[in-house]
Design goal:
The structure is a single chain. The chain has 329 residues and is an alpha/beta fold. The protein has twelve helices and 13 strands. Helices cover 38% and strands 18% of the residues. A seven-stranded parallel beta sheet has the order 3-2-1-4-5-6-7, with helices on both faces. The protein has a six-stranded parallel beta sheet with strand order 10-9-8-11-12-13, sandwiched between helices. The radius of gyration is 21 Å and the shape is globular.
């Protein structure tokens, strides 16, 4: 049995939860996903447990349920947490986006097209397009096939948006006489925009994956933070501009720029961000350039990353169980 541990709240962690749910969909039926509920957490249909704060409780859970393998996705767990789990579980894998710490585990997974070099990581490291994770609802959705003049823009920066990108860019987009959809990431955040809603501005809170895919495919261009959403947009064939709003997003955006899927690596703390976006917009008004962008993106990701990760963890966990049960020579 495999246990997946992650974290999510009203402001952070939705990308962690979505990719862990995608992997869990491909694990053996008895496997479990537990979510540490950070402030503002309101997701339904997942089991919550404060595993970062209650190590003895989750270790007791591991012992009772006979956990053979563990997958952890966290930006907040410290080194001692990973060490404690490695001491009680035969096989431990972690997700990492930016070489956060040196993990005392068996496998580090960087689920992006390109990641850090991981020069100091002791365990095995896998990275690259084969490991990019997509939710099943995204994989099953029809791709965007028709591109027209630039009229509808979607803005999506997650529930946190600590850089205030919605407030900075929404007036800019409306000033360009565009139809704008805002994916606020949470219902509470969406309510902040209600006074401004009109026939050209539509605001959405938390959207289920299928509804989000429908909105993305309807867009002529999406402006997004640099996390998991970029992988989904590339797979769906939706042209996008990416703004780095956290250190964990650097490698993901850099890879898409390198492959000419998006034209420039924007940063949220750039005081000239608005002008730089306007300059790029001038070159994206026609459909041909955006169509070429998405064709390069579609070819990068095959949608099999979650299944590959689940297979590796399941196989190596079982192998570790066999080694532990083998009689000593």
């Amino acid at each position: 049995m495999i246990l997946v541990l992650t974290e999510s709240g009203g402001d952070v962690g939705y990308g962690h939860l979505s990719r862990c749910e995608a992997v869990a969909q491909n694990l053996p039926y008895a496997s479990k996903l537990l979510v540490h509920p950070d402030p503002g957490f309101s997701h339904e249909n997942v089991e919550v447990f404060p595993w970062r704060d209650d190590l003895s409780g989750v270790i007791s859970y591991i012992d009772r349920r006979g956990i053979d393998g563990l997958l952890i996705d966290s930006y907040l767990a410290d080194l001692s947490v990973y060490q404690a789990f490695k001491d009680v579980v035969g096989y431990v894998a972690v997700f990492d986006d930016f070489d956060r710490i040196s993990y005392p585990v068996n496998l580090v997974i960087n689920p992006s097209i390109k990641g850090p070099q991981y020069l100091e990581q002791i365990p095995e490291v896998v990275s690259g397009a084969d490991w990019v994770i997509l939710r099943r609802e995204i994989i099953d959705h029809d791709k965007k096939r028709k591109h027209s003049d630039l009229r509808h823009v979607v803005l999506t920066f997650g529930g946190a948006d600590k850089a205030g990108l919605f407030e900075r860019l929404l007036p800019l987009m409306l000033g360009l006489d565009l139809d704008v959809s805002v994916v606020a990431g949470s219902d509470d955040k969406a309510q902040e925009f209600e006074p401004f809603v009109d026939q050209r501005l539509h605001v959405y809170g938390r959207l289920e994956a299928e509804n989000l895919a429908n909105l993305f495919v309807s867009a002529d261009l999406t402006i997004s933070a640099g996390g998991q959403t970029l992988n989904e947009l590339a797979y769906l064939g939706v042209p996008f501009l990416a703004i780095e709003s956290g250190v964990d997003q650097f490698w993901n955006i850099s890879a898409f720029v390198k492959h000419n899927v998006t034209p420039e690596h924007f940063k949220a703390d750039d005081p000239h961000l608005e002008q730089k976006l306007l300059n790029v917009f001038a070159s994206l008004k026609g459909a041909a350039v955006r169509s070429a962008m998405v064709e390069r993106g579609i070819g990068l990701i095959d949608g099999g990353g979650a299944a590959r990760i689940a297979k590796v963890i399941a196989m190596k966990s079982m192998s570790e169980v066999s080694v532990r049960k083998s009689p000593a020579l």
